[in-house]
Amino acid sequence: MANTNMDALYPEFWAAAFDELNVGEYGMQNRVSRRYESQLGQSGDTVNVPISVDFGDADSWTPGDTITASNIAQTTAQVILNKSIRKTINLTGKELSLTPYDLIQSYGSGMAKSLISTVNKELYKTALGSTYFVDARAGISENFIADAGTKLSNNEISMLDRVFEGSPDILGACMKLDAFQHVDTTGSSDVMRDGKIARRFGFDFYQNNAFAKYTPADIAGAVNNTAGYAAGATTMTVDGFDDDTNPLRVGDIFVMAADSTSTPHTITAVTTTSSDTTSITFSPGLVEEEKDDAVINVVATQSALCYVPSGIALAARPYATLPDATGVKSTVVTMNGLPIRISVWHDGNLGVKVQYDLLFGTKLIDAKRVVRIIEDM
After folding, report:
1. Is 132 inside any structural domain?
2. Residue 61: how many CA atoms within 13 Å on its side-chain side?
3. Which domain holds residue 277?
4. Domain shared by 232 and 113, yes or no
5. Cα–Cα 20 to 30 A to 230, which of 11, 28, 106, 299?
6. Residue closest to 138 by CA, chosen among 173, 162, 164, 167
7. For residues 309, 311, 315 and 316, what is the CA-based torsion angle, rounded to 10 degrees?
8. Looking at the structure, do residues 286 and 324 belong to the same domain, yes or no?
9. Is residue 64 part of a domain?
């Protein structure tokens, strides 16, 4: 039956795309901190998230003594809503004659996926800013998962609500590990029965399809400093990278070609001049002295994230709906925890435009609460 009643002219019709969305796992937005999001209401672009102060050990004192207090300053991390995303399509008479089901399946579901996957990719990129990692480039094993948990514990992060999130490839590799396959030792048959990993090693395991869509390439550059750099340096002037095709980004992993220890370093900041990378800051510092023109090899890696929700923050709000007098019909729906505005309007001819949009921002609140398990691509 054709769509003769023109349901497609109403945003509520397109909201049904969310019911049909079954195109992968994209749920990180529901596993990070959003507790301060309510400060935004329907306006505003900044959320201030307070960061817990580490006061160290308690002070000894004798009741009755004069008490000396320490001055403190509350530290906050700002989550700025600076990412405005949309997906807009134009429907002609041919598309409008499709059945409602076909319209949703052919267009609506893909548009919804586009926004949700983009938010998840941005959360992943934000988490890559953590300098705490476990090097599993030789292949993931139970030991590396345990090591990630130990790093969190050494950082004094609670055992509660720990999350392990990775791409389908990484979760698939985990499912093959003995610790997840052995029903008799784990006491759970989840992996054998339905391919799901229940809580193990103190983590709840989740798959995320967006993680595999952000893949740094194998590229190389060089030190650009006549004097070179001493061991311990954490910033280097560089050149020679293929910035047009594969620009360096925060979270990329590199190894110095001449480093006898092959220590991986995480890029924490990138400086560009005329669109070319001219300086990088990284952690840990150089293990050995590096000379001018020493080769810097960026390794194509993918990370599984071991974190607690308070390590990463997300704030999102919908754009305001417009009055009917504007000729645009719009509504706001919540999809996978994201408030997305849907708008429909005539294109001035015989077509109809449909747009999904969202305003959001992400922030790494505390790097100590996020540990990456890095693997070769």
Report:
1. yes
2. 10
3. 219-299
4. no
5. 299
6. 173
7. -60
8. no
9. no
Give the H/E segment covering residue 84: strand 83-91
The alpha carbons of the chain give a radius of gyration, in whole angstroms, of 25
Q: Are residues 209 and 343 in the same domain?
A: yes
In a domain, 67, yes or no: no
Taking 70 as the threshold, does the pLDDT of residue 171 lie above it? yes
* φ, ψ (nearest 5 deg) of residue 352: -130, 135
Indicate whether 8 and 98 sit together in one domain.
yes
352 CB-near residues (< 8 Å, 6+ apart) = 8, 9, 90, 91, 96, 344, 345, 346
Number of domains observed in the structure of the chain: 2
Distances (CA, A) of 172 to 12, 187, 325: 38, 20, 52
Distance CA 371, CA 375 (A): 13
Q: What torsion, rounded to 10 degrees, do the Cα atoms 99, 104, 110, 112 define?
A: 160
Identify whether residues 45 and 180 lie together within a single domain.
Answer: yes
Question: What's at 197, amino acid-wise?
Answer: I
Predicted confidence (pLDDT) per residue in 70-80, tens digit: 877 767 778 88
Contact 42, 320 (CB under 8 A): yes
Task: Say yes or no: 206 and 229 in one domain.
Answer: no
pLDDT digits (tens, 9 = 90+) for 133-153: 999 988 889 999 999 999 999
